[in-house]
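User: Before I run my own analysis I want an independent prediction to cross-check against. Here's the chain; please return only the structure tokens and, at the end, one sentence I can use as a sanity check.
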Amino acid sequence: MTTSIDAECRVPLLEREQIPASSPRFTKTRSERGCVPNMFKALASVPALALGAAALLKPLMAEGALVGWYKELIATRVASLNQCDYCIGAHRYLPASAAPRRSR
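Assistant: Structure tokens:
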């Protein structure tokens, strides 16, 4: 998700090799989502904060009354209503395993 706007960032967006302490979290996030969101790259400057945010988001986006892909759909719609292109881009791409399966 890193783009050309990185040069404009006030907080550096760290890559996995720049943060050995939390690289297992990066590896897990990349394998689950297919990428590491810029939010976690920015929080990686403070590993405890990155782990705390991940701990908050994991149960929030977990399967429950609503399935995870539906929560992402809602987040994408809210971003669209707010005309937040960055947020739309962050939420619109789901790993293939998270998308609903169509029955034939």
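Sanity check: The CA atoms of residues 82 and 88 lie 9 Å apart.
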